[in-house]
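Entry
Fold in token form

___
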Amino acid sequence: MLPPSDPAPSASPARFSLGCVTFGREIDEVAAGAVMDYAAGEGWTMFDTAAAYGGGASERIVGAWLQRRPASLRPLLATKILPPYEPATLRSRVDASLQRLGLARVDVLYLHQWHESALQPDSLAALHGAVADGLVGAVGASNFNADQLGRALTLQAERGFAPFRYLQNIHNYAVSAFDAPLVSLCLRAGVERVGYSPLGAGFLTGKYDGGVPPGTRFDLIPGHQAIYFTAAARERLARLHAVAREMDCTPAELALAWAARHPALSRVLIGGRSPSQVAQGPAALARVPAEVTGRLD
């Protein structure tokens, strides 16, 4: 059985960021607004979207919501652009995201995934220019490994460019792209670590044990299946469920608490289709003590 839960301060709002991947793809503007209202009301300090989410729909929905709030009450906003990161088009894609968001400036701009063009000096110069011109507060990388991030940081330092200050990678109990060399590099370079998909797009709940139901994330994005339908991931899934049964909590609670409490991360992204789904993150961290999540390791 679960021992008494940790006190509520362990579920600090600053630990969570709102992932907006479902907006305009799985839920409409009204439902997305309810999710954002919940996160803002709970004091979550960063919302995370991308140009690719819903073909730009997520940025437009987030932008419309932001316009209805006083500037002093708005959370930090992060968005992402896809490769290739060619200097001739990079600035125009930043401008397009800002237009959809209805903002003159975005707090964090990520390169959404690794591509060799991220190491072009002119591309890094264009990113630096976006920061220098006040269009971007800080730049980040997503889905980079230690070698890729290290090479980019070295080039930025050599040329005096604004360095990557954020790294966003997948991180959950079954699959993680935050290995020890990468975390060490981030700590040395002062890069904030943001983990996404703490439930493995539903894999860790066990919802795919009998196949892929229509309309689920693995159905909408079949690429998830190659990531999670492996022997290693299924072994971790079995371990998670065994500990959850023993400690009288749900697999989702245990997985969320493990990800949110993990020392590799500065923040964990929580997304969903409703406020109740998003609320599972803080609730799990408050309910499941550290000694329970520690049993998974």
